[in-house]
Amino acid sequence: MNQKSTGGGLASGSIWSIVDNLAQQVISFVIFAVLARFLAPDAFGLLTIAHLFILFTRLVVFDAIAMPVIRAGLPDDRFFSWVFTCCTLAGLLLAALMFFSAGLVSSLYRAPELKTVLQGMSFSVLFFGLMRAYEARLVRNMMFRQLAIRSIGSVMTGGVVGITLAAGGWGAMSLVVQQVAASGLALVLVVAQSRWLPRIVFDRALNKKYWSDIRQVGLTGILQFANTNGDSLLVSIFLGPYATGLYNLGKRVTSAVYLVIASSMQKVALPVFSDAGADMAAMGRGYLKILGITLFCVAPLLCFQAVLAEPLVAAVFGAKWLPAAPVVSVLALLYLLSSIVHLNDYLFFAIRKNRLPVLFGIAQLTLATVLAVSCYRFGLLGMSLSFCGAYLLVFPPSQIRLNRELGLNAQQVWYALAPPLVGSTFLVLGLTAYLLLVPPGISNVTLVAGGVLIACLLYPFMVVVTGWQIRSVNASWHGLLLSAMRLGRAR
């Protein structure tokens, strides 16, 4: 493959990967909002508990087995068949474990209805196991368009099925059928797109050769699962399905902003950091530019959600979801910090400080667990504050260490981040005043629409004003420095 075709494939793959991610988030959010109108929070809580098991198997088992084939130089069909055999066997065992342990798990959660949900979702575990080798083959051949079509088609079809059943009164089982239908259709589509039929391959040499990689990816997957889903797991253990459903809504609303914007900027950050190489000054400039753009896009959306959480939740999801509004406000701050922390992790990896993100991640996870165990008696809001508190405690040392590695001082960081931070501060104050001054009796939809108008006018104005002020300060210091240099030469 020549350089041109490789570059074209990389550009096309990147575009389709972003389209896939964005489309999935938008479609899933719309489907979730519609389903929330028909179902109670405890139905989503039951599905979230079952989904935690599926996410664990995908990150820790299936991805660990498939990663060697993606990293391999020139994998052949025998290699892919070996991955298919391993993932299929793991899928069968894990699906059986989930199915037959459903009664025990439901009794531990004191939720009898959870048993049927777990048993139904066990079929998705098997489908994901059967699918993983096909996905690895498509990724290895840079066939991201096929993966995007597969994802969008399966999510939309599953959503239509789920909404139809929820409207018919199926309750939590409508969500189970939605998930199983989506994963089953995804398997059918990926098989049809691959045009490849695997064989059953057992190879001890391959097992021995890639066991170290599988173990390393699996351990990384455990840490990733704990950092991204440990909060939901703790909520489900201490507070049960109803609170888990409310927390899941708050997390879906706030994380959507992060997943669409911040994660896309992190993909852009990788080539920027790579181009900088060992030039720390260039690395620092690139980091501040990407961080400023990320906050410029993320901060106003999360601030808007934090202040207008109550009317926003009522207008989009219905009044029965109003107990989730305080959670939305707290998690908005959490994901604002998370967008910075995860970008910092990318930069630590770029400058070969690979252990630092792991250490900070372990520290954040440990603090979140300790605080959650201490605060669960204060209910869902107390646990949400504990998760946010863990990020607040870990963020300063992480940022200080990063600034030291890049040679950045406080003034440079402030000049880069002042426009979005000042704009967001005034946006919060403006929206708070708006809520206090608005007359009672206005509908939630009208209240949200008025907030959108204020945000669209106030935030850009304050960003522009702050940017001008910074430029004028820089210009004045630059002029003063030039004058001093000229005076020195004259003398």
Automatic annotation (TrEMBL):
Entries under InterPro entries matching the protein: Poly_Biosynth_Transport (IPR050833)
Keyword Membrane assigned: yes
Membrane is among the record's keywords: yes
Segments traversing the membrane: 21-40, 46-67, 79-105, 117-135, 147-170, 176-197, 217-243, 255-274, 286-309, 321-343, 355-372, 378-394, 414-436, 442-465
UniProt keywords, alphabetically: Cell membrane, Membrane, Transmembrane, Transmembrane helix
GO cellular component: plasma membrane
Protein name per Swiss-Prot or TrEMBL: Putative polysaccharide translocase
Organism phylogeny: Bacteria, Pseudomonadati, Pseudomonadota, Betaproteobacteria, Burkholderiales
